[in-house]
Design a protein that fits this description.
four-stranded antiparallel beta sheet, 1 helix, Neuraminidase
């Protein structure tokens, strides 16, 4: 594996990377925007919002769907769903199924509470094309990054506080059943963003300072450490053959003011052997 190469620097806090329409897209969370990144690192803002944004995806008709973290789902920038009744403490990442529904993760606890807030389990949500909001699966420990297998039949979810990846069988209309542990992270690592390839999963192991590749069951096959003082936040496989791993890192853990002050979010890229599959 070759050395990582810098693609983009100076982000407030990057999240939700996706490969779409021949380019990398991602949320610059605390700059309240979604950007498109070309192969030479040139960026274009494709959505500007008035609050933090995170997970992104595209509906079957091509519209951009975006998580507004205060509890709304946007479609081409307009509110399409209000999830606050089921997610009172904010939402984070999202993956859109090719048939149009989306799975949305939530924190499940008040991150701004004084002291050390108690982390509680919460539901993974599903937002349908008609804007209706449903509980897709109960009792996840901070559902974060997600991926869907290329046949559309399996969802893999990173549970940050659970320190594991969990999988679900996807049924008609997006119903989820047959919950399994896909892999426990090594060394007590906590997963943030993730993507899948033809054999396993790449995970941003935020507490380990590494991007790691896991096979089902937990075997680690590859590790890409990040520089001292930086944190692994999210990743996606893209490029013309989906053999480029785009890795988002930051010097903060996502605190809004500190992230905007530092403007130290970045994207690095590295070539890998096994191509990405499915979504994102």
């Amino acid at each position: 594996m070759n050395a990582p190469r810098l693609l983009v620097d100076g982000l407030a806090f990057g999240e939700g990377p996706r490969w779409h329409d021949g380019a990398l897209h991602l949320s610059d969370m605390h700059a309240h925007r979604v950007i498109r990144v070309e192969a030479d690192g040139t960026t274009t803002t494709v959505l500007q919002h008035d609050a933090p944004v995170s997970g992104i995806g595209w509906l079957p008709d091509g519209r951009l769907q975006t998580v507004a973290m205060d509890g709304f789902i946007l479609r081409d920038g307009e509110v399409a769903a209000d999830v606050r009744a089921l997610a009172p403490f904010g939402i984070n990442d999202m993956v859109v199924h090719p048939e149009g529904w989306a799975y949305v993760g939530q924190f499940g606890y008040d991150r701004d509470a004084p002291g050390r807030p108690e982390i509680r389990s919460s539901a993974l949500l599903r937002v349908d094309l008609d804007g209706s909001v449903h509980e897709a699966a109960p009792d996840l420990l901070v559902a974060n990054g997600m991926a869907i297998t290329p046949d559309g039949s399996t969802l893999v979810v990173a549970e940050s506080a659970g320190r594991r990846l969990s999988s679900f069988a996807i049924g008609a209309g997006g119903t989820l059943t047959d919950r399994q542990v896909y892999a426990e992270l090594p060394d007590g690592g906590a997963p943030d963003g993730m993507c899948i390839d033809a054999e396993g999963a790449w995970v941003a192991a935020v507490t380990l300072g590494q991007f790691i590749r896991l096979l089902p069951g937990g075997e680690v096959t590859d590790r890409v450490p990040v520089a001292d003082g930086r944190h692994a936040i999210a990743c996606v496989l893209g490029g013309p053959d989906r053999r480029t791993l785009f890795m988002i890192t930051a010097t903060t853990f996502g605190e809004a003011d500190a992230s905007r002050a530092a403007l130290a979010g970045r994207v690095d890229a590295i070539d890998v052997e096994i191509p990405g599959v499915g979504w994102p």
